[in-house]
Amino acid sequence: MTSPWFFLLIAGLLEIGWAIGLKYTQGFTRPLASSLTVLAMIASFYFLAQALKVIPVGTGYAVWTGIGAVGTAILGIVLFSESTALPRLACIGLIVAGIIGLKLTSA
């Protein structure tokens, strides 16, 4: 059996994919980008649902959104030249610390 935490990781990575994908859809006017984004959304929710069969919903949802937020922020820096100001990076680090804390304190 595959670990629910692995499913949650996959769900979070797919969330990054669809969040970044939204930028490329140009308001859902580009069919290929739009289709790939919607598929990533569906797959992300599927893997989240599988993980939540075992992981408490509060923990799972927080980790899922945390992975998505951190990954999307990092890719925003890399792909779209978004700010790398120290306070922004520190806040991203706090999200990572929260994700790790939730994982370590989960039964």
From TrEMBL:
UniProt keyword Cell membrane, yes or no: yes
Segments crossing the lipid bilayer: 29-49, 61-80, 86-105
Keyword tRNA-binding in annotation: no
Cell compartment(s), UniProt: Cell membrane
Membrane topology reported for the UniProt record: Multi-pass membrane protein
Coiled coil: none
Pfam family, one: Multi_Drug_Res
Keywords of this entry: Cell membrane, Membrane, Transmembrane, Transmembrane helix, Transport
Major localization listed first in the record, in broad terms: membrane
InterPro entries registered for this protein in UniProt: EmrE-like, Small_drug/metabolite_transptr, Small_multidrug_res
Family label: Belongs to the drug/metabolite transporter (DMT) superfamily. Small multidrug resistance (SMR) (TC 2.A.7.1) family. Gdx/SugE subfamily.
Protein name (record): Guanidinium exporter
Species this chain originates from: Microbulbifer taiwanensis
Lineage of source species: Bacteria, Pseudomonadati, Pseudomonadota, Gammaproteobacteria, Cellvibrionales
Gene transcribed to yield this protein: sugE
